[in-house]
Amino acid sequence: MFTVERPEAFNETWARAFNTRELDHLLALYEDEAILADATRTVRGKAEIAFFLGEFLKVPGTLSGRNNFCLQLGDLALLRADWVLRDPDGNQIMSGSSAEIIRRQPDGNWLYAIDHAAGASLPAV
């Protein structure tokens, strides 16, 4: 399984977990009651997140992610990252900028509390 000991490493770790194409690797990076959203829907809890991520894993390609910033206050961290999904030929399939809150767990690892995959790339309303 994938673990994150430093919050600034979270998005790179998530991308590596995605690229294994193993749903359990991704789910291990979420709290039990975490929230996951994209531009059109929001889900809560590991069962709903599993369905959401299972659909995303059907899209072929390789994901890369890069943190723009990591602001940490105690056991919480706010992240913003840019991510790109490329097909096997290297063409961009989709991309976005995320807004995320991760929380340090009692074992010292960090997990998503809130993952908004498109939160930083949505237009103002």
TrEMBL record:
Residues 13-108 form the SnoaL-like domain. It comes from the Bacteria. Pfam families: SnoaL_2. This is SnoaL-like domain-containing protein. The lineage of its organism: Bacteria, Pseudomonadati, Pseudomonadota, Alphaproteobacteria, Hyphomicrobiales.
